[in-house]
Amino acid sequence: MTTPPPNAAGPLRPLDVDRLERLRAAAAELGLLHLGAVDLDHPGFSASRDALRRFLAEGKAGSMEFLERGAAARLDPRLLLEGARTVLIACVPYDGEAGPVARYAQSLDYHTVIHSRLLALAERLRELVPGASALVCVDTKPLLERAAAALAGLGFIGKHGCLIVPGLGSYVLLGSLLTDAPLDEGLRGAAKAIAGAPWDACGACRRCLDACPTQAFDGPGDLDPRRCISYLTIEERGPIPEALAAKIGERIAGCDACQEVCPYNAGADRRLRAPASAWIDLPPRGRRAIDLVAIADIGSSQQRALARKTALRRIPRRHLRRNAIIALANRRGPTTPAEAGALIRAAADPDPEIAAVGRWACARRGVAGPEGEGAT
Ligand code: B12
Ligand code: SF4
Ligand code: SF4
Description:
By secondary structure, the protein is of the alpha+beta class. It contains 16 helices and eight strands.
């Protein structure tokens, strides 16, 4: 974050095509791709601000109190940075393998990686616009990042709600600089025109909506996170309703089902479509091997080692255990002795929430619980 004192030397030099091009080139060198800019007064924000108001009014924030707390700033980013005029936003690609941990969480924690790239970009911005302030935003600041990215011309929002970047698909993460540097008239006028719904480019396709294991979409782009596996495994701090738990499958951290089926993410050559240096690296010692039985019982130091330097750090140990027990409950086929042992121990856990999930899991897998009940 960089906030020099308010500019006493008069109005800031605006970002024109030439300066934006130079900034875009600097961003690309730093691994921040397709840098775009959008004025905060862009009329296209009103649809997404209305979407946010509806989302909150319908209680869709669930346990995500940060969405309620940050609502005023999401609606007016000037509350985050005095005098803010522009969002500069870029994307960073990631890959990974389908499995119990969503792809984005298999790499180094993107918050840290993108934050440091954006800090370097803020320096370049100040060289081009002396006196400019810039606030680094990667997920943790209340900013409507997907709407900003679409309006800045990076791509479009798909029916799955994620930003799709032509050529790279939706397996990209977003990072932005909120700045008081204004765009010049020409760039403001050239901002992306808005016509129709953001997901018009999906055409008649609705694969993501149909593939969602929990049917979490109320309509195109209209997700109810309270039914979304990503929310349930990462954000939900209360008990997970059994009917939803049964549909989580073996996922323990996030979900990619709606993105896996998206034709914009198809193509084995995706890795070749962005410079090697832009991709978010794997953490030290590589992609983590996931052993659900071990995680069902995981201790603090093992959990720290498992989550180290990845976004898995966001999931408290108790919830990681809960998720692994649910995943074991959903596993198909005969129960192994190791799985049965883990479920019996869970059912006898001193933590009532873990014990309740454990008893449910025992019943689901036909394992006699600690007191012999629950066998089917
Ligand atoms: C809270 C949150 C979640 C919650 C809730 C998601 C949600 N849909 O609201 C949960 C935990 C479920 C979640 C899940 C995921 N998330 Co998330 N999440 C966020 C976070 C922190 C805030 C999102 C938010 O404000 N939600 C409130 C709703 C109302 O806003 P919105 O999602 O931005 O929706 C916009 C559009 O729908 C649009 N819109 C709607 N209607 C209309 C109509 C018109 C006409 C227009 C123009 C626009 C428009 O406006 C809305 C407001 O901007 C953002 C980071 C950020 N600061 O933006 C990351 C972010 C959205 N998440 C991200 C990722 C990667 C994911 C997952 C893929 C992770 C995973 N694999 O499990 C899933 C995807 C689930 C999905 N299909 O959306 C990335 C998305 C990158 C991308 N390519 O789009 C972000 C941007 C983080 C980042 N910095 O990269 N996430
Ligand atoms: S992330 Fe998974 S649960 Fe959430 S909307 Fe997409 S497919 Fe559904
Ligand atoms: S799966 Fe189809 S409908 Fe969904 S985002 Fe991709 S193209 Fe759009």
